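Translate sequence into structure tokens.
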Amino acid sequence: MSKVRNRACIMRILSFSIFTAVLVLSALAGCMLPAAADEDNDDDDILDLLLPNYVFSTNYYDSFGTPDIYASLLGDPEFERGETVQLKVNLVNKGAIYGFKYDTSVGTDKDDYLLSMKELEYEMRRTTAVGIKAEMISGTPYIEVKPDTSIQIMESLFPGKMPKHPLTFTITISNKAPAGVYYLQLPLSYEYQRQVRITTNNVVRLGLTGMDHITHYASANKTLLIPVHVKASPGFEVTGISGNLVTGEKQTIDVTYKNTGELTAEDATVRMVVMRPLSIEQSVVRLGTIGPGESQTARFNILADSDAVIKTYGIDSEVKYYDEQGEITISDNLEVSVPLEEAERKIGAFELALAGMIILLIFIIVNVLRNLKKYE
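Result follows.
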């Protein structure tokens, strides 16, 4: 009887030793295999062995398919020069599972069959993108992406489902941006489920209770393009300034305005805004119809106070016109830089009279001296 007990005890010790050896070998594999994995870029299967619970799991199926993400811009994609707008980008996942391959045969075992069906359910999550990071990048100097909105995060994107909230980016379009289509880059980085393995009952020995499957993820990257349309419109800039200001005098200043846009500006007028020590005789001048690339010159009469500071004055002006839809449009501020010079010093009437009196006095003194010499 004692021999039977001893034999049972020895068997229990042997079983425990074998189990301990398996755990030790698994831990050693976790320490040693990373170096080997670096030597071979195709060792994805070896990397799976780094987890000790890999030994206590079974792979019944391999599925095929990945997330397929597309982007669309919500709202009107056309914007005007000088605008600061919010781009609302919607991501859509069109990924689909296009096949399965069994890896482990279940035979007629009912439990294995149920476990394989459970894994099949998990395998359907393969096309879900998780941990999505989107960064909007502008490749043109005419469009600036606001830095604090350039990176957006989305937790997950399921196939065929719309996200609750779109990605929102803030951009500013330059006043000098030519009309046309600009493509902003939207690089995406995310992860997706690469493999699912169903755990066996032995996983409890590792202290991982409640874990019925193991999920392995892979990283992916994709760059999308977001089109932004800049509307064609008239645009103006100052291309020439003739004349200068003089203290205490009224001077004529000629300013040339050029239509640098793509459309015609109908019935255009220009308004100049001046402040003391300057004043203007007529602040609004008609330019007429100006086609793309054409120029018109406006003439202004500007008076500078006699005590005005000598410097270059920046005078504001703006062009008002009718666009092709017949709507009144006002251009951005167009600065006119005009230098102020000091007036030449002129001799006044009092100074002329005083000079005449001095000359007359000198003449009289000279004549008196001449007459005295004659009498001597």
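Note: Residues 1-6, 8-50 have pLDDT under 50 and may be disordered.
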